[in-house]
Amino acid sequence: MKIALDAMGGDFAPAYPVAAAIRALKQLPSIERLVLVGDEDTIHQELAKHGEAPSDRIHIFHTTQVIAMTDAAVEAVRRKKDSSLNRCIDLLKEGAVDAVVSAGNTGAFVASATIKLRNLLGVDRAGIATFMPTRNGKFLLLDAGASVDARPEHLLVYGIMGSVYCQNILKISEPRVGLLSNGTEESKGNEQTKDAFKLLKDAPIRFVGNIEGHGLFEGETDVIVCDGFIGNIVLKTSSSLAKSTFKWLKEELTRNPLRMFGALLAQNAFKAIKTKTNADEYGGAVILGLNGICIKAHGSSSIHALYNSLRVASEAVDNQINPHIIEALAKLK
């Protein structure tokens, strides 16, 4: 397969994207070619630092513009047509690559992909799907920020797409789908969630009902459905809390020699939990519902996170996610 990587997208571009690309080509044999999209001279310089050069597996697609994180999304997509982000989507639309990965401007990425690729048949609103940890595994949060004003019928489609994704990526035969709300009873929630509950209950998925915030990380569900406004808050709050908790632990465990000794004995446990809660381990978020595989990595992604984003892209292509979603939605109709 061929994957386009936005070499100019993200806080640490192009250094981190190029490093992640080199690692992915060494460790992910299913990727036949990586197309690094961005300023050719700059990318050449980064490749040289690693003793690499363009080859049959590394191709450079030169662009002259970059969409900044501060740029207005739709305006930037229209004004900066030769940006690395826009050209990545163009390559996917033309069939030159099978998937796209970018750590650039999220709004611009979603806007460009939606405008150029269009949605899959049966999908009105695409959704950002990202894995988050539970006690014994992980769950898929959908939508994590693509659409802040989703209607009940959009949440229904999110539930179906999330179920299909977990079936094929996590190999769960009947993923448990829950609706994020402020109570477990069917009568709880706002008008949006109440109407979505009725739709999800009659859908051809394993719907387990409403899930409250305190049940997110207990492993009660495999898919959590919500609109992008709530989902993005959940995602960023959880990530911030995880980081803050480890900072607080470090402060408390270094207050005196006795605590430091206890921390030394438990260091392997702390490392295991830190790895489990580290978003870098889960790779980028897939934008489900688009007519193409698009993976959005966080703007501050590390090399490891970008490598895992490329891994997620390759898994989505290998498992033919979009054809399975189209099939599932056709059954719904």
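Above is the first protein from milestone M3; the second protein from the same milestone is given next.
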Amino acid sequence: HGFSDGPRSRLYTEVAVSGTLVVTAAEMPGHRQKAVRDAVKVLAWPLILLLPLGIAGTWLLVAFTLRPVAAFRREIEARGDGHLAPVPIETLPSEIAPVAEAVNALMARVRRALDAEHSFTANSAHELRTPVAAALAQTQRLKAELPEGPARARTVEIESALQRLARLSEK
């Protein structure tokens, strides 16, 4: 009993029932390799066909579900300077909505800071223009009253400095 190799097959013999029964099984050479190749073919071909379909399906599903996020990104990218209105977040997935709310809150804070800066700048320019205009008028009056000489040359320098300051405050 056990394995033995014949001219055309491999044999396995086993004795059972106290030696009264003998069972022999024969296998042709290469039968196992062919069975393994057939099993691999049967299992691999569906995988080879379904794997690209699965990848394409996953890509399409992800692309479809992320369309609102891409639209949100394009909306923010398309904004020009000073366009700080809130971005609509109704169509965004619930996982991204908190990020969009934070972006909108940030834009609101930036808008308030810019408004405060503009207000401060406008008020400062207004407060600065009046005294500069008065000093410039006084300097021009003084220049008209002074005779030619070093004092008048200095008033001309003061006048040009005040004119530069007036132009700067206008900007």
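Note on the second protein: The mean pLDDT is 87.
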